[in-house]
Design goal:
Length: about 150
């Protein structure tokens, strides 16, 4: 992995023209180096990332437009445009767009670890169970649905 270089990632563009479709959400990678990884995300209405844990990464989400309903360390929360969501490593979190409109945001994690590789693997994978399996192989651990476990 290369070191970060100075520059501008132009609006609407990502690294090497990459755009990922991850379970109906659109992720456009913006910056990648060993210490951090960022991407722009669009969550259409009704899409979500179920509760999961990054044991060795801090994660941040800056909400650009729209609203998220969140599960944060066992509690419910809400974040809207202009809010920053802080997700320390080891804390269970889930991200849900329960609104009637798209939610757009900028995510970043530190350090990068294997998240880039995971996104490459789960791009266009339609089966949530397979996404969960692959995530586990990349040290991202999804929690079982309520009532299971």
């Amino acid at each position: 992995m290369q070191e970060m270089t100075a520059g501008v990632t132009v609006d609407g563009e990502g690294i090497d023209g990459i755009t990922w479709n991850i379970l109906g959400q659109t992720y456009v990678p913006k910056q990648l180096c060993e210490s951090s990884f960022s991407w722009h995300a669009t969550f259409p209405s009704g899409t979500f990332v179920p509760p999961h844990i990054h044991p060795d990464q801090d994660e941040f989400i800056y909400v650009l437009d729209g609203r998220f309903d969140l599960f944060l360390d066992g509690a419910d929360a809400v974040a809207a445009a202009g809010d920053l969501i802080r997700l320390p490593r080891g804390i269970a979190h889930g991200i849900f767009n329960k609104s009637d409109a798209d939610t757009t945001c900028l995510f970043w994690v530190s350090p990068t670890q294997r998240l880039w590789d995971l996104f490459q693997k789960i791009h266009n994978v339609p089966d949530p169970a397979e996404v969960v399996r692959l995530a586990g192989e990349h040290n991202i651990h999804f929690l079982p649905p309520p009532g299971e476990g």
